[in-house]
Amino acid sequence: DAMVIQNPRYQVTQFGKPVTLSCSQTLNHNVMYWYQQKSSQAPKLLFHYYDKDFNNEADTPDNFQSRRPNTSFCFLDIRSPGLGDAAMYLCATSRDWQYDQPQHFGDGTRLSIL
Amino acid sequence: SQQGEEDPQALSIQEGENATMNCSYKTSINNLQWYRQNSGRGLVHLILIRSNEREKHSGRLRVTLDTSKKSSSLLITASRAADTASYFCATDDGGFKTIFGAGTRLFVKA
Q1: Among A103, A65, A64, A55, which residue's Cα sits nearest to residue A82?
Q2: Which of A42, A48, A63, B40 counts the highest number of beta carbons within 10 A?
Q3: Mean pLDDT, residues A34-41 taken together
Q4: Burial of A39 (0-12, 13-18, 19+ CB in 10 A)
């Protein structure tokens, strides 16, 4: 089945230690998104890729970076995680960058900071 | 910025009852979507309603949209324990970006 897969499901890192989260998709969608979701809150868009074009949200901290080496894979790098970065990180895809495109989500990576 | 706000924040009902969740938004939209999120999982797209539509059905789901009141409702009929989840409305920002509300947490008691 076509899907969005995130690895790992749970990640524990130390304060200030860089961490990378990964996402892969078999849907062959053009757009990939990274969201941060804290407990009982709305998913917050960090950035998205339309194909290879990177689009950063204005309020995304510089601490967060992303890479999309090919259509199928996208990575979220947190360079120096702080306690406030503990959250669920969701990857999503959509076929195109249009307002009527439903997004397909992975099951997320829950990040804990020690 | 949060476009959609769901009401109530939490809802607890008995299996077999209907569940109604509401979403209000601030600015003009092209469409509105509803998503479900089971605990510890990703969001799943349920239904999309366009701004020129007033009502849409999908199985036990019924969505209405009132653009004059800038509001939408999601009705789940004959709820099941498996419907226990958080439900999010999502609107566009007038362009191509999707903005999610904070969600309604639905608990269906067996």
Answers
A1: A64
A2: A48
A3: 94
A4: exposed
pLDDT less than 50: residues of chain B: 1
- Find the closest chain B residue to A41 by CA distance: B102
d(Cα A82, Cα A80) in Å, to the nearest integer? 6
Closest partner CB to B102 (pick from A42, A98, A99) = A42
CA B90 to each of CA A18, A59, B5, B6, B33: distance values in angstroms, whole numbers, following the listed order: 32, 19, 9, 10, 5
A100 band by pLDDT with thresholds 50, 70 and 90: confident
Between positions 42 and 101 of B, the ones with CB within 8 A of A are: 42-45, 48, 50, 88, 92, 95-101
Point out the residue among A41, A43, A99 whose CB comes nearest to the CB of B43. A43
